[in-house]
Amino acid sequence: MSVKLKPLSEQVIVITGASSGIGRTTARRAAERGATVLLVARDEDGSREVVGEIEAAGGTAAYAVADVGDQAQVDAAARVAIDRFGRVDTWVNDAGTSVWGKLLDIPNDEHERMMRTNYFGAVHGCRAAVPLLRDAGGALITVGSIASDLPTPIMGAYSATKHALKAYVEVLRMELRDMGAPISVTLIKPSGIDTPIAQHTRNHQPGEAQIPPVIYAPELVADAILTAAEKPRREITVGGSGRLQVLLGLHFPWIYERVAPKAAAKLLTDPDKKQPPTNLWEGRGGSERSGEHAAKTFSLYTKAVERPAATLAVAAAGAAALGAWWFRRREQAA
């Protein structure tokens, strides 16, 4: 069954993890393009602030307080969307948290809490969203990470949650297609993004956690999400440098396994610098960016993935021009 998605200006979009970082940026940019937005997060103050900003700019938004680790709370947030706006056209699973440390040093309760947010949070979102999207169709978008493909020392437990998330999303896509459900299922895989995620990390290493380079702006992820809301996409990696890292790990594992532990050690600041409070157990929203990095605002690779038809056309035109130039040179030489 073909999937037809509405223009953003006609959509109602639910975004989890929307009080800070990528979710907050996506909510703002979606509203700027005319979408009606329901923000879902634990942090009520941060969510209320974003809704106020959207409404002040002439947009339409509301929020629901929910911990995505609890299915009942996610279902309640979905009911808010239906009660307020009558439907859901796109659902974005973005809520996430992180724990850094050597795998054997991370307490089980922290590992389980992160899995409940990063993995089960998306599972709960999908279970709430599919019944709402099954009849009229729509987009189901989940924010993973290049860590979905790339195991990273110190971030090993976080990578495990993202690997699990990738498997769930890919199988769900197959099952929905087999059912004939008109739902586009997309996995977004950001590289290092300038958000407060490192500042909110539960860190068991000395020093303050830092975002892995190369660092990109959250607007690039938001734009990838909104592209998938309008045009069915299987997956989008945000940031060409992240894609290169994944390819290195995939094709040259013996090199990656030697280099990765040394590179991971550089993801921490001065050991005497104190790590800010974590959002592992409670919401800590309030900002889109970390305020610590000069992030890249463009990725040619990501634009090519977002617009494959246009990219192919440009490549074909370039190949044709090159071929014409070559034939002219041969004729002149003859």
UniProtKB/TrEMBL annotation:
One of its GO terms (molecular function) is oxidoreductase activity. The chain crosses the membrane at residues 309-327. SUPFAM superfamilies: NAD(P)-binding Rossmann-fold domains (SSF51735). The keyword Membrane applies. Keywords: Membrane, Oxidoreductase, Transmembrane, Transmembrane helix. It comes from the Bacteria. PROSITE patterns: ADH_SHORT. GO terms for cellular component: membrane. Residues 269-292 are annotated as: Disordered. Belongs to the short-chain dehydrogenases/reductases (SDR) family. This is Short-chain dehydrogenase.
